[in-house]
């Protein structure tokens, strides 16, 4: 049983984004934190106070989702610019671009073996991709409005998704069919995820509530209404005993799922909180919001040996045995409102460890003058850390930073007059790539239908042969009589 030690504390903050911080994730080794922002940039922060931070440039519009791969060798990001990028989180800043959807991509997530990606988009579809082959596999299309979030189950057999059609859907990755739909959501659903054992899902939405469902019994287990505005994100603690939520009411709240109550309300952001995430060990968590800051908190409230808990979860991923005892109590659905006894924490010290880290920018930009997106939501990203013009690129070698300024012609290899023409060509190629993706999807559907027709034809032939054999037997019996 977990024991309460001391209150969560704000350990440090990270400043470097020029826009709202929309998403975050910890590396598997808990040494790094990746964040995405409306400023179109992805940043990797080292939790070592003396280490540099890396800014990755490549997206042309706000980033909506980021995640480390299970091995930590890749980072994936999704954006309003309709693309998904796979980054190598090293100093070379390389990335591979997926022209993923016909509309903004709201969510991207790795499967737990790192072999697949699932994306969710405003085009009302989910898509599954092969990471190593870097190709589209199949679509899931039963949502009737924007799809806001999608996640793989821990065993990879299921996908959960949610959207503005006020539903949460469960998909079977083998049959590619929707196997269950939760409609009692009360409004648009903004975020959804599995707990660590894969037996439950939680969902949040515009009606300020958080609901937890048991997917084995399709029952609502817990219903929390502790925020005064919409909930944008949440994260399960690795033990499944706690959950943190981020809300537009400018607070982060910690729920004790075993006792079914709110235990902490954290005040640290100046404005809506858009993202929150526990580390893999659960000893720290990060939050980000519209104030462009990333806050790192230390939990301090649990000393349970979670390595053993996680081993038990992995042993229970096989659904063939009979269900084990529910991970989350109480088992009957009931409403939890914010009690007055919950502890309010308002930190006054912004950073207890170090000054803002030096930022090294990664990723070449072909059109540096088009940093601001077409809709006016972007902002110019400074190069080379605190100083340097928009034409400066930095490379990290053997612990030292070397900076050199390049003219546009030298960096692109072409005269300045060609930049507009090249950008037009790139846009046309984007349209062509998206068209090919649609045709590929339709070809997959055609192949499935053709296979189904062939199977039906084979069954008809077999049935006809049986009828002929039966008629032949009847004729032979009649002639012998």
Automatic annotation (TrEMBL):
It is found in: Cytoplasm, Cytoskeleton, Microtubule organizing center, Centrosome, Centriole. It holds the Pfam family WD40. One of its GO terms (cellular component) is ciliary basal body. Its main location: cytoplasm. SUPFAM superfamilies: WD40 repeat-like. The lineage of its organism: Eukaryota, Metazoa, Chordata, Craniata, Vertebrata. Residues 397-412 have a biased composition (Basic and acidic residues). The keyword Lipid metabolism does not apply. InterPro entries: WD40/YVTN_repeat-like_dom_sf (IPR015943), WD40_PAC1 (IPR020472), WD40_repeat_CS (IPR019775), WD40_repeat_dom_sf (IPR036322), WD40_rpt (IPR001680), WDR55/POC1 (IPR050505). Residues 338-352 have a biased composition (Polar residues). This is POC1 centriolar protein homolog B. Belongs to the WD repeat POC1 family. Residues 422-456 form a coiled coil. Keywords: Coiled coil, Cytoplasm, Cytoskeleton, Repeat, WD repeat. Residues 315-352, 368-412 are annotated as: Disordered. CDD domains: WD40 (cd00200). WD repeats lie at residues 14-48, 56-87, 98-139, 140-181, 182-223, 224-265, 266-297. GO terms for biological process: cilium assembly.
